[in-house]
Recover the amino acids of this structure.
């Protein structure tokens, strides 16, 4: 790039914010404050003494900063076990969800089979079911299978996310078929096309699919689950 071009680039004035951008920024800031306020309240409360934490009227900042709550949980709680449980469940759920969602979404988007639309409708119907409705049935099922207080009891109920299947299904529909047809002409099979062309192109949607289950272990699109105390 020449010096003259660099000078012209620097001379371009910044556009002033439009009223719509200002309103959206203020609205986003307000929503962020609403979501972050409970977290800040919990953090400040954890730094208060036991007596001060239940005082009325309440106040945000501690009068006397203390870490006795943190000390107590470190001494009496099994934090290492909790962290290991969360890590194992998150990694396993994320890996399984990525594989199953990608395969299901690609199958719906690129293959034709009898009952495809009915099966797709059943999957989409899962988006309309409240997680609270499936809490008890899921627990009963896991209990009957003998998987309470196990890793599989946490992992399996979260491995059929209808939302993630739908996200990848819509993405695969937007991938030009010409890319796959060119690979087929060169002798590539369906699996090779999927692994070498479709999967690399779907990285943005895959990241979206991966972030949803791993960001909230213990919840699922099918229903809430529970935290094992001593998984086996």
């Amino acid at each position: 790039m020449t010096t003259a071009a660099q000078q012209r680039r620097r001379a371009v004035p910044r556009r002033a914010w439009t009223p719509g951008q200002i309103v959206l920024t203020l609205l986003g800031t307000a929503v962020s404050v609403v979501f972050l306020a409970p977290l800040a309240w919990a953090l400040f409360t954890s730094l208060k003494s036991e007596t001060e934490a239940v005082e009325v009227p309440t106040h945000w900042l501690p009068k006397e900063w203390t870490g006795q709550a943190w000390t107590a949980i470190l001494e009496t709680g099994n934090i290492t076990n909790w962290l290991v449980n969360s890590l194992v469940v998150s990694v396993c759920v994320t890996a399984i969800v990525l594989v199953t969602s990608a395969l299901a979404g690609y199958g719906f988007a690129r293959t034709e089979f009898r009952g495809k639309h009915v099966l797709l409708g059943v999957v989409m119907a899962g988006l309309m079911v409240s997680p609270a409705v499936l809490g008890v049935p899921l627990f009963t099922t896991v209990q009957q299978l003998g998987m309470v207080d196990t890793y599989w009891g946490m992992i399996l109920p979260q491995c059929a996310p209808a939302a993630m299947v739908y996200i990848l299904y819509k993405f695969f529909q937007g991938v030009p078929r010409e890319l796959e047809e060119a690979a087929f002409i060169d002798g590539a099979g369906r699996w090779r096309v999927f692994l070498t062309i479709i999967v690399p192109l779907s990285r943005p949607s895959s990241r979206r699919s991966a972030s949803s289950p791993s960001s909230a272990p213990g919840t699922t699109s099918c229903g809430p689950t529970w935290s094992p105390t001593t998984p086996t």
About this structure: The chain is about 65% helix and 0% strand. The first helix runs from residue 3 to 11. The CA atoms of residues 39 and 49 lie 18 Å apart.
